[in-house]
Every structure is written in structure tokens, then in C-alpha cells.
Write a structure and sequence with these properties.
Number of strands: 5
Strand content: 15-25%
Distance between the termini: 64 Å
Low-confidence stretches: none
Shape: globular
Strand order of the largest sheet: 3-2-1-4-5
Largest sheet: 5 strands, mixed
Amino acid sequence: MKGTTRFVGLDVSKDTLAVAVAEEGREGARYWGTIANRPEEVRKLVQKLGQPEDLMVACDTGPTGYGLHRQLSEMGIVCIVAAPTPIPRQPGNRVKTDRRDALRPAQLLRAGELTPVGVPDEEDEALRDLVRAREDAIEDRLQA
């Protein structure tokens, strides 16, 4: 029997993941907490939240977001990588906190209002990193 879907929002940073969970229905998302951004901690989190087939996860883009997407996908979890720019913000809400940045994607994922971005494979991501490093080196040379 299939359980209730849990919609998980993750604010990804280099060292930590801020986690928020929205259940099916109309209740607001709740902040779950912060965990270390390490594969073993992510596995523990998934075990605490429920069965992989009952979870949908939204995380933000970036080098750490793509790796997290790959890990969650390998675990059988539906994971959406969303660019932070199109996520609507409330007027006057300019303070950025990990808590808010985790709650909003969970709510929008449940509402079906997140647009996923394409996730590059590891080879494409390595090529992007190389191109960025080259552009940085050219910029440094021009400034010198």
C-alpha cells in the first residue's frame, strides 16, 4: 500500500542541508532541521522521512545540488532541481535564511509550481567547471 507523499524542500550549501517537509493536504510546511551535507547523513534522513517511493524532493541548483540529485535518484526518490531565481518571493521578505529557503520549495513542490532545470551528467558538469576555470584565469590575466 502506498503511503502519503511527503514533499521535502532542501536548501543546499557546501557543508549543510536545511530540510523542510510539507505533507499532502493544506497544512503549511514545517522546518525539520539541518543536517551535514554528506551522503551518509542524507541516507539517514531518507530513512527517517519514509519510503523512497513516498518522497518528492526539491533542491536548488549548483555543484552540490547536482550531486545530491544524483544520490537521491539512485535511491529511487523523485528529485527536482529548481533554479532559485523563478521561485516567487513575498514582497518585503528580503531576509535570506536557510529555514525560509527550505520551506518555500517544499510548499511549491506540493503545489506543483516548481519548474525543474536540466541536470547535467558528471561529464558535462566537469566540462562546465573547466570552462569556468578557464574564464576565471583569462579574467585574472586581463586584470593583471
